[in-house]
Amino acid sequence: MWSRFLRGKDERSQDRSRFHWRDVLSESTAGVVQRPARATLTALGTVLGVGSFVAVLGLTATAASQIDSRFSRLTATEVTVHDVAREHTDFVPLAFPDDADQKVEHLNGVQHAGVLWPVQLDKGQQVASAPVVSTGAGSQIQVMAASSGAVRAADPVLQQGRLFNRWHDRTRQKVALLGVGMAKQLGISTLETQPAIFIGDETFTVIGIVSDVRRRADLLLAVIVPRSTAQVLWGPPKDGADMLISTRIGAAQQVAREAPVALRPDHPEYLQAVPPPDPRSLRSGVNQDLSQLFLLLAAVCLFIGAVGIANTTLVAVMERTGEIGLRRALGAQGRHILGQFLMESGMLGALGGLIGTSLGVLAVVAVSTARDWTPVIQPLTVFAAPVIGLATGLLAGLYPAWRAARVQPVAALRR
Q1: Confidence band of 153 (pLDDT split at 50, 70, 90)
Q2: Which of 103, 111, 331, 360 could cysteine-pair with 55, CB 3.0–4.6 Å?
Q3: Closest alpha carbon to 248 in 149, 66, 107
Q4: Residue 84 located in a structural domain
Q5: Read out DSSP for 51-67?
Q6: Under a CB-based contact definition with an 8 Å cutoff, are residues 78 and 244 in contact?
């Protein structure tokens, strides 16, 4: 192979030799194949680094897509309207009109809407399952006033019974809904006996037990009574009320703009609508946070891989000093030795990059399958990963190749 060095007839051309790129490739391949165990261990660092790089970007994109999907189903369809009338006047105890549910539900895109607020009981009043109870756990139970529309907007999951409706609102019925944990705390396990609870001196019939809510999880920790009943018994809210609105996907922003005017055309400033945040900015923020964290780990893996390649290549240079000296004696120049060792390290880096890319893609698919997600991998990531492995190998082999190129033939052959 080395007989392909061409020498000129004169002394000037005798110092100049040529080494064809096919010879460089052949010699580099032989140098890698002849030491399979060392080549495998050397490429392992690049495999881990590039694999981490691909897996991180793929899992980040997949997680962001999943978050965006869940956001669209729940958060993107939720609008909250706050009663801020007391910031403008002291003469409006409740800015929401009595028919607030109907007014908002007439807006395009609204599914359910209703007013709710925490009830502040008078001193000494508490919630119990018996008419006489000592002060204790019952005094810590929260009572929540909510219209039937607010209950449905929370998207509850019933375990037993039923929800109260507009008839209960209109006729101010003394009925209550309980979360499953609250029902156990009050000793209520079934509704077949038509159980009742006592809020102060008032008796409320429990008509439903809720096992879960998809919005306003605090409702599970409270006794829920009709808004109209609470307003008659305990008066308007002392700290303001909220309206919970569930919308169709894509309608939340428009509903947030229209709701204050629909509720109070005379004083829309009494109500403050809070639309859901932009899903694109949320996904971008999640993407950025996850990428910064895990790309740092991938960079560490790549650095470790580069150090491994550099160390192994440097050891190979020291072990092959005699071979390098013989090549130099046969006419190889420093740049030929430099190119050979650079190609060896580059081949190891590229091979590690290809294997790491495959493992990274498989990791993304495996995690997505286990979590029932849709895997998302950018094509640019797949194409760029092997190039990163190649670049890592070349940079790692630069110093060892430079050391090999500086080996003097006479000193090498003496060893």
Answers
A1: very high
A2: 360
A3: 107
A4: no
A5: HHHHHHHHHHHHHHHHH
A6: yes
Both 305 and 229 in a single domain?
no
Between residues 280 and 322, the one the model is more confident about: 322
Output the 3-class SS for 157-177: EEEEECCCCHHHHHCCCCEEE
Residues 129 and 188 in one domain: yes
Pairing mode, strands 222-226 and 271-274: unpaired
234: three-class secondary structure by DSSP: helix
pLDDT tens digits for range 334-381: 777 777 777 877 887 888 888 888 988 998 899 888 888 788 888 887
- For residues 20 and 336, the answer to whether their CB atoms sit within 8 Å is no
Using CB atoms within 10 Å of the CB of residue 171, give its burial: 0 to 12 exposed, 13 to 18 middle, 19+ buried. exposed
Residue 151 and residue 145: Cα distance in Å, rounded? 10
Q: Which domain holds residue 330?
A: 21-70+281-413
The verdict on 27 and 128 lying in the same domain is no
Quick one: CA torsion of 394, 399, 401, 407, rounded to 10 degrees? 180
Q: In terms of C-beta density within 10 A (0-12 exposed, 13-18 middle, 19 or more buried), how is residue 64 classed?
A: buried
Task: Tell whether 248 and 286 lie within a shared domain.
Answer: no
Same domain, residue pair 157 and 236: yes
More confident residue, 272 or 326: 272
